[in-house]
Amino acid sequence: MTFKKYFYTLFWILLICTPIAAQQKKADQMTKRAKAYVFQQKDKIGKTDKLLNLKLTKMYATDRTVKMVYTKSNSNFVSMFPEITEGRFKTEAQENRYVARNYCIWRVANDALASPSLSSVIRDDVYTWFVDVVGPEGGEPLYSFDFKTQAVRNAIMLCGGKMPADFKNYLSKTIVERALQSLLKDVYIAHDSAGFCNADLKNQKLSVDLLTTHRGYPLMKANGGEASRIAWLGSFMRLSKSKRYFDDLCDIIKVRQIEVEIKLRDIINPLDSAMFMIYPSEILEYAKNPAVSETQIEGYLIGKLGGKKQEAEKRGWFISQYGPNRTTLTAAVAPSKSNKVYEVVEEMPSYPGGKPAIAAYIAKTVKYPGPCLDKKIEGRVVCRFTVTRDGNVKDIVVAKSVDPLLDKEAVRVISLMPKWIPGRHNGARVDAKYTLPVTFRLTQSAEDN
User: Fold this and answer.
1) 249, exposed or middle or buried, with CB in 10 Å at 0-12, 13-18, 19+?
2) Model-level pTM?
């Protein structure tokens, strides 16, 4: 009995210790791989990246982690790529952090694609990169961030397995992806009998609730949810086709394979619901050949559901408040009562006609200062200003100066701009900050200048 007792004890000890030993062996292998990766990067230490003006000063590996320290030449923050990131971050420091993080991911992704050994690490293992950016005097980091191998895999997938040679091209893709995430959630229907709400985007799947009246429910449900699907597709196309990066959005939908799940609910009988899917191929096909054009979607729904078209100012997020007879949905569209000036809002202010209209207005209005013309001074003046909830422009400041005369002309041109479409936050019109670069470029013809 004693021998059998010791035998079973030994058996259970071996059974428990074997997987632990295997896990420890794998952890040691991963640490070894991380150190090998750092050793391969040793020639980059001490070198300054001129694009971001950051110098890699330290790089070392520990258990499943890679630690990197960059030194910034000064402690000031400026917008590094205003033409790409304008208006999307609360502060320049936040923008710098976002740009630096994506820069590091882009670098690692390029290394992975060039190295079979690192590629296998990125594909199979879980590593974390910890990055600190310190000032010229060292000390506490100006900002820090981290990312895992999943972020690198996502970057490679975002670019279709081939990273752009130019970092700015990759940064543009990440900004467009952020915009797509916002656009997917901002889809709405401007109709008094139906409205999307409660959008939840996880991984590649967007789940949205579509509330409708008791009378409209069977119509939205009929023919496999035809009206529900067209309502979302038409609204999404109307919202996204106004963006200059629409083609890039379609590329990302194709790469990411984003699908939409619509849960249709009757507001009087919530237990009565139906679910419909919209797949990436359908979104892309609708972009090429819309069954109902984005300008006709409201008329299509009115024909299906009846009711009346809402006024343009009543478009926005639908909230779960119903009319006295529970047959209408109410949109939160009133101007905000707060005096807060927002840095970032759900729907940023926009100029009527978009970026092309801004460029046309500036070209028509700007007057090149004579002294700057004579001295051949040119460059981009970046201005920050507030677009009020009424669409007016005020509080213009120069965020990036070129020359006092060019700065003054940029401020003059912006101050004369017609009314903008105000930004929205939580469904209400609000005062919001906006960044606009005004480029002064000399041509060979003095008359054109």
Assistant:
1) buried
2) 0.53
